Amino acid sequence: MIETSDKPRIEFTPERLERAKELLTHYPEGRQKSALLPLLHLLQEQEGWTPTEGMDYIAELLGIQPIEVYEVATFYTMYHLEPVGKHVIEYCRTGPCMIMGGEEVYAHLKQKIGAQDGETSADQLFTIKPVECLAACGWGPCFQIREKYYTHLTIEKVDEIIDELRK
Amino acid sequence: MTSERPKILTDKTHIPGIETFDVYRKNGGYSAVEKALKTMTPDEVVEEVKKSGVRGRGGAGFPMGMKWSFLAKPEGVPRYLVCNGDESEPGTFKDHWLMKTIPHLLIEGMIVSSYALGANTSYIYVRGELMYVVRILEKAIAEAKAAGFLGKNILGSGYDLELYVQPGGGAYICGEETALLESLEGKRGNPRNKPPFPAVKGLYQCPTVVNNVESIATTSWIVNNGGDAYAAIGIGRSTGTKLISASGHLKKPGVYEIPLGLPVQEFIYSDEWCGGIRDGHHLKAVVAGGSSVPILPAAMLLKTASGEDRLMSYESLSDGGFATGTMMGSGGFIAMDETACVVKNTWNFSRFYHHESCGQCSPCREGTGWMEKVLHRIEHGHGSMHDIDLLVDVAKKIEGNTICPLGDAAAWPVASAIRHFRDEFEWHITHPQEATRPGAIFKGHMELV
Question: Is the pTM of the predicted complex or chain greater than 0.95?
Answer without folding.
Answer: yes
